[in-house]
Specification:
4 helices; 3 strands; single chain; alpha/beta
């Protein structure tokens, strides 16, 4: 995922952190610094480590995976898109991130 894609969907200053063993700590630090509740913030990721972090931190998760056999590493029921524009074109305006959680 590139900053260009994030800027295109309207995020002027996206918080992107490289994956590390401290991913949960990084997410919690960002939430605290920005004053956001986990339930109000989506986590967009392309790996199972991202999915696990979102789950552990209480964030809605949106998987990003290409098309094709084996491209989707996420558990059945996980919301997955090929790009973020696809998600925002489908979501009704004003839909909170938590409403987009997979059942």
């Amino acid at each position: 995922m590139s900053n260009g894609e994030l800027l295109e969907i309207g995020l002027s200053e996206p918080q992107i952190a490289e994956w590390s063993a401290r991913l949960r700590d990084i997410v919690r630090e960002i939430l605290a610094a920005e004053g956001h509740a986990p339930a109000d913030c989506p986590f967009v990721g392309n790996a199972m480590s991202d999915h696990a972090c979102a789950s552990e931190c209480g964030l809605a998760f949106l998987g990003r995976a290409g098309a094709g056999a084996g491209a989707n590493p996420f558990p059945e029921g996980t919301r997955v898109v090929a790009n973020l524009l696809e998600f925002f074109r489908e979501a009704p305006a004003g839909t909170p991130p938590a409403a987009s959680r997979a059942a």
